[in-house]
Amino acid sequence: MESLKLIEIVGTAAFSIAGTFAAMEKKLDVFGIFIIAFITALGGGTLRDILIGELPVKWIFDPSSAIIVLLSTIAGLLFTTVIKNYHNVLLFFDSIGLGFFTVVGIQVGIDLDLHPAACIALGTITACFGGVIRDISLSNIPLIFQKEIYATTCILGGVIFFLLLKIGVPKMPVEVICLVTIVLFRLLSVRYHWQLPVIWKPVKPSS
Amino acid sequence: MESLKLIEIVGTAAFSIAGTFAAMEKKLDVFGIFIIAFITALGGGTLRDILIGELPVKWIFDPSSAIIVLLSTIAGLLFTTVIKNYHNVLLFFDSIGLGFFTVVGIQVGIDLDLHPAACIALGTITACFGGVIRDISLSNIPLIFQKEIYATTCILGGVIFFLLLKIGVPKMPVEVICLVTIVLFRLLSVRYHWQLPVIWKPVKPSS
Amino acid sequence: MESLKLIEIVGTAAFSIAGTFAAMEKKLDVFGIFIIAFITALGGGTLRDILIGELPVKWIFDPSSAIIVLLSTIAGLLFTTVIKNYHNVLLFFDSIGLGFFTVVGIQVGIDLDLHPAACIALGTITACFGGVIRDISLSNIPLIFQKEIYATTCILGGVIFFLLLKIGVPKMPVEVICLVTIVLFRLLSVRYHWQLPVIWKPVKPSS
Lengths: 207, 207, 207
Fold this sequence. Notes:
Three copies of one chain form a homotrimer. By secondary structure, chain A is mostly helical. Chain A has helices at residues 6-25, 30-51, 58-61, 64-79, 86-111, 116-137, 143-146, 151-166, 171-191. Chain A has a domain at 6-142. The B-C interface holds B 21-33, 35-36, 46, 50, 53, 55-57, 60-61, 63, 66, 77, 80, 85-87, 90-91, 136-139, 143, 147-148, 190 and C 50-53, 55, 114-115, 117-118, 121-122, 132, 136, 139-142, 144-147, 151-152, 195-201, 203-207.
């Protein structure tokens, strides 16, 4: 397990539990639940690694990620017998995963000497696209395209990350502040129904 | 055609025919049917090759796979005039493809010196994810996430593969036994409605 | 911006505007609209680059594509206040993108010394799969699988490209003829409802 940083372990576990809950809503069988948890937790990082050409993807050779997903899925399934309000639990773990994985993705970009904008893009892809691939797999329009300040939260966290770094704050506190900002902002945005403007006009259906 | 092993040719042809039948259910045009057959037959192997970094994917440079898909699609379309029960035919070819492609994927993992668990994962991805990408493309929730012992069949076949190898059975009969087990188990599981447990509890819709 | 050829800029801008209009139909928020425009414009080229192993994908390191998408999306959003008939505008920009990106993809294949059939496949993937990934993201069955002469138009353009090249026409006019053929053929095919044959027979739903 030494090949994964703590931050990746927490993010993977949080997203696996969020994925488990999302999969149970769709009445999948236990194997389907595991696969959806896996996609939610590792889909964003996998897409990121494909886009930057970091292949083979790490989880093919290193079983630790898969083991974390498996244990978290089992924990998620056990939770279900004691938990009343699924939606809040799902939201909580999802926010945790969002914060941790944004920082992981930004770090990957920094290691590649990318421009801050590209680092923030990688952070956002790492944090958001596991959920996007999960939603598409479950035949839903990805939530992040529709409502709620979701990806925008990651971008905001990323901007704060590089602003703090620029004014000389050391890396470690910057990571923690970025992470906490994202988790809090995400929770607050759902609590108070913040959302981005929707521009819409009726359109004739395409042919 | 010498660049493809017999086992790949049979798997490709079987999945192309299964894909052709699935596409016809959705009233696609002939080009759409060919693309869906192509995705069904080559999608799983393509995803596998992307994940392990075996790029460019083989079918870009080597037209033999595309030719097999094309011929099988034409054969599938001709079948439709003489066949009464689509569903059984689709199931039969799908099971054949499942067995052959699991063995192909396991072999790719062995060639990379991967751990048996990773080999079985590659076998399952090769065999199942063509169908997953097809189902997503047709706006269905992938069947394998929902019901029927599908991916589980590949995993079972993979476990038998490595158990037999471990007790000293030579590779060739191991491949045949693995393949036959998967095809039979898949057919029996559909015939007798075997399925994995579904864990479900009503959940408040997300926001 | 010197890293992008003019042909790529026009194709990217046209597809971004088409994507913006498609996203507005689904009532996405402004961030969702930008992502869908990005996927429409760069999804096909990204899939092509993954398949041929040209990684990292160019837009990770080079922000010019993202900037074009952003500006085009803003332009598309501004258009909406003055435009009456969305559908025709969407169709027009989509056809422009289709023509330009087919030529871009064929060129990539030629640079890799691929067989003309593989070049045409890359051209078609470049031009069509941004739209496919967009449609899948928006929970639609991709239009190109269903009706309208869409991918077929790219294939036709590609065949004309290589026929003209074979009889000795220089590259530059060949590219222009290929491009114009695709745009015109696409517009005419929609205007006159040309479509490929659909083969369909009722099928028992797969259990």
